[in-house]
Amino acid sequence: MAGLVPWLDYASVLVFALTGALVASRAQLDLVGFIFFATLTGIGGGTVRDLVLGRDPVFWVQRPELILLTAGAAVVVFFTAHLFESRYNLIVWLDAFALAVAVPAGVGLALEAGVSPAVVVAMGVVTGTFGGLIRDVVGNELPMVLKQKELYVTAAFGGAVVAVALIGVGMPRPVALIFCGLIVIALRAGSLLLGWSLPTYKARPPRL
Length: 208
Hints:
Layout: H1 4-26, H2 31-53, H3 59-62, H4 65-80, H5 87-113, H6 117-138, H7 153-168, H8 173-194
Helix pairs in contact: 1-2, 1-4, 1-5, 1-6, 2-4, 2-5, 2-6, 5-6, 5-7, 5-8, 6-7, 7-8
């Protein structure tokens, strides 16, 4: 468990950083703007998670190489983004994979902190969604978490709940985290490819 969670953090930071840099490319920013977006997106969810859990210092202060990782991702995207025909589709799918890594990372760290199952689920959702939310709000894009007819927060929530449930019945934590990630990517991919969604609220005339 102690060895798996840091690697999940590294992976989620890298992939989310790539999505942030791609958003910067859509806005036609300079290299510093790319690095800013990549770093903000890469560490955003994990920073909120650590602040809520009272972890001091937050994860990227303990591991400053993560900042170099986000900067490196930004530089790579700066010189290669023009090669992709649809950068938005690339953002969507990279974001889906990042979500599937970040949610188990958040769940794992919350479990290590010894918090209640409800908080473990919440930290999984926060870690998976807040980086992308910050990226889209700052980049003036419609946040993916708010798009109708798509499973996003639901995918994160479902994966986190499955992990907590599996651990509750005795499954080893690393195995439960793997299942968590698989559930997240399955739900997100099903939403994108097959149109899976939850019913949405429909306003009705008030009753007299």
